[in-house]
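User: Modeling request: complex.
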Amino acid sequence: MSLRLTPGARIVAATHNPGKARELAALLEGRFEVVTAASLGLSEPEETEQTFGGNALLKARAAADASGLIALADDSGLSATALDGAPGVYSARWAGPGKDFAHAMALVERRIAESESDDRSAWFTCALAVAWPQGGPAVVVEGRVEGMLIFPPRGGKGFGYDPIFLPDGLGRTFGEMEEAEKDALSHRARAFAKLKAALLD
Ligand code: ITT
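Assistant: Request completed. Predicted assembly structure:
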């Protein structure tokens, strides 16, 4: 089986997060026929792994096996140095069942204050996994972007923790950036560049 992705191939984007789905679609740039896990009615597997790569692979394998299509999955999150890398793989879970990211960002702020650390550095990680159906091969890559956390949150663009993340060297949070600007430097874009090198170019 070839580990190259042929342009025009039908692939399933194994995410139920609309913010991620939008960014992944922009990165895929119309190279593929992309269908979403939600549109195929695929269920969300439980994220039982302790690493971004492990969870991305688990999601890609579940979607590939359920759909019979090549699947692309994303597992990502925010890590604060003062919190020893939390919320990390639990980033979505810190927002609770209602996916309340105002609450999750306030929780990050409170936990950092409680830690009594002055360190506001943080990073986003994105693991992308592509899996072929029926127990076929899989590829997992990871990208990161470093920055600082700022409070109160700034900007209403993006999704999740974007309004508290100021990427190094820039004066605007991800929440204040147009999508194309974030897509040029984000953890997701960096992971995607590695995927492209492995599977596309
Ligand atoms: P899927 O599993 O269906 O893809 P999810 O939202 O549950 O959706 P994750 O388990 O990977 O995805 O959770 C990652 C969380 O980390 C996500 O919900 C966001 O809140 C946050 N996150 C990841 N990438 C982000 C980004 O680019 N900007 C802001 N927050 C991000």
